[in-house]
């Protein structure tokens, strides 16, 4: 996949050539953050839990952007005491905190919040101690603002939090199997809230923003290594696999993976701070994805049928133009369509 050329509308607040730390660099979201940063002229230090499982990263991005600009370091435990005081956090101009627990069926919210905050608070404290750090971006999710439900009208603002999920997750009268993915949503809500609380309390000298993407679709850089992703779900639908999982995912919003990565780049470049940036390019549902696949592969006659899942009726009053303005600050005028995102995902998996 060729990236759209980066054309900064103004001199970047953090100059190209600076070193940016990206956690969880082998994941779908983070790998696109890495890609966009490299395309923008930055150097990247990416953390992974296992160098062996992430050996594809350096050659992949060297082929795309040239050798010597991406360094991969192994950090098996992001929450280990003192881990962020080590040398790999030094000399960086920005930190992109992307890695995090992805367990939709977690049951112990308190433990998950404690573990994640041990890592993120460690990064924030390390950033505060490093004079070179000018920006910190935390990856959250729209699920920290609301629970997607078909045909439910609601209004979401930048001040919205998923209090309903937090309440349901903490309701001892409801058995775990009656809570669905509310505990995971509650976990993500509480982590983002705690980070904003830290920023309000500590008043760091660096810019702090959060990115809240919804369903992320698009190219995967290594189809063998990046199977466990939302883009991978597109292939499930193509293959008629794991429909029980897909049918539990209600209609909501989506964003192209490269567009989402570009939001992080734009936050560095523009120097804005104190923003919750919603990564919501358009409405999404699996029946619509299925129609794209049928048009893309007309020779395939055995696509499954999906029941009508209803429509997302969330009204986003979140200054969506703010996210689009960030894209435009890097030379991209519009969101990538769902159709193109689905095609890119499938082309990635069918090319191997």
Walk me through the structure:
This protein is an alpha/beta fold. The protein has a domain at 19-147 and 157-218 and 254-282 and 315-335: NAD(P)-binding Rossmann-like Domain (Rossmann fold, 3-Layer(aba) Sandwich). The chain is 37% helix and 16% strand. It contains eleven helices and twelve strands. The protein is globular, with a radius of gyration of 20 Å.
Primary descriptors:
352 residues; alpha/beta; Rossmann fold; seven-stranded parallel β-sheet; three-stranded mixed β-sheet; 11 helices
Topology diagram in text:
Layout: E1 19-22, H1 28-39, E2 43-48, H2 57-65, E3 70-74, E4 94-97, H3 109-129, E5 135-139, E6 153-157, H4 163-169, H5 182-202, E7 207-213, E8 215-217, H6 230-239, H7 243-246, E9 252-256, H8 257-270, E10 275-279, E11 282-284, H9 286-296, E12 313-317, H10 320-328, H11 338-350
Parallel strand pairs: 1-2, 1-4, 2-3, 4-5, 5-7, 6-12, 7-10, 8-9
Antiparallel strand pairs: 9-11
Under the CATH scheme, the architecture of one domain is 3-Layer(aba) Sandwich
- Return the CATH class of one domain: Alpha Beta
Report the β-strand fraction as a percent range: 15-25%
Structural class: alpha/beta
* Overall form: globular
Q: Helical content, roughly?
A: 25-40%
- Average pLDDT taken over every residue: 93
Q: Quote the distance from N terminus to C terminus.
A: 14 Å
What is the H level of CATH, i.e. the homologous superfamily of one domain? NAD(P)-binding Rossmann-like Domain
Low-confidence runs: none
CATH fold label of one domain: Rossmann fold
Spell the H/E element sequence.
EHEHEEHEEHHEEHHEHEEHEHH
Kindly report the spatial arrangement of strands forming the biggest sheet: 3-2-1-4-5-7-10
Describe the main β-sheet briefly.
7 strands, parallel
Number of strands: 12
